[in-house]
Every structure is written in structure tokens, then in C-alpha cells.
Amino acid sequence: MPRSARWRLIDAERILWERWPDECIVYNDLSGQTHLLNRSAAAALELLGAGAESAEALAEKLAVERAEIERLLQEFDQLGLIEPDE
Q1: Are the beta carbons of 10 and 80 closer than 8 angstroms?
Q2: Element (H, E) at 84
Q3: What is the pLDDT of residues 15-61, one digit of tens each?
Q4: What predicted TM-score, i.e. pTM, was given to this entire model?
Q5: Quick check: helix, strand or coil at residue 46?
Q6: Cα separations (Å) of 75 from 7, 21, 81?
Q7: CA 69 to chain centre
Q8: How far is CA 81 from CA 5, 34, 46, 66, in A?
Q9: Which of 14, 9, 62, 17 is nearest to 36 (CA)?
């Protein structure tokens, strides 16, 4: 993943959220898939819904290791929840 890559949530209107204190479920209307996210993954996805972010910026905002964010971004990309910001 390029260091300067910025990512954003796919069409936010196609993502449905159900939140609880420690986790949430997101339904992707484009793929028909439902995903269970822990608190930190949900926070990262919400930030990407607010605007494009790099792994470095997300790691700083969420106070987690950059490697963890890069792994999370890779998973989100594979699940079709995010896309590169062109």
C-alpha cells in the first residue's frame, strides 16, 4: 500500500449501520454483505465516511499503530467497504 494513499468509504448511502457500545454491524447494500466490526474498526470506517484519509492520518487520529491501520484498510478494501480516493 503506497504511503501517500488516501482511502474513503464507498457510497455512504449504501452502507447501513447498527451500533452498540463495543461493536457495530455494517450492511453493504452494494455487495449484500454484513460485517461485524469492533469499536476501533468502526471508528476507522466512520472517519473514512467523513472524508478521505491516509493510513498515517487514521493511525494518528485513532492512536493505534500504523501497521494495524494498514491491515484494517486492506481488509476493508477486500470487503468492498472502501476505495482509493482519486
Answers
A1: yes
A2: strand 82-84
A3: 999 999 999 999 999 999 999 999 999 999 999 999 999 999 999 99
A4: 0.90
A5: helix
A6: 12, 22, 9
A7: 9
A8: 16, 11, 11, 19
A9: 17
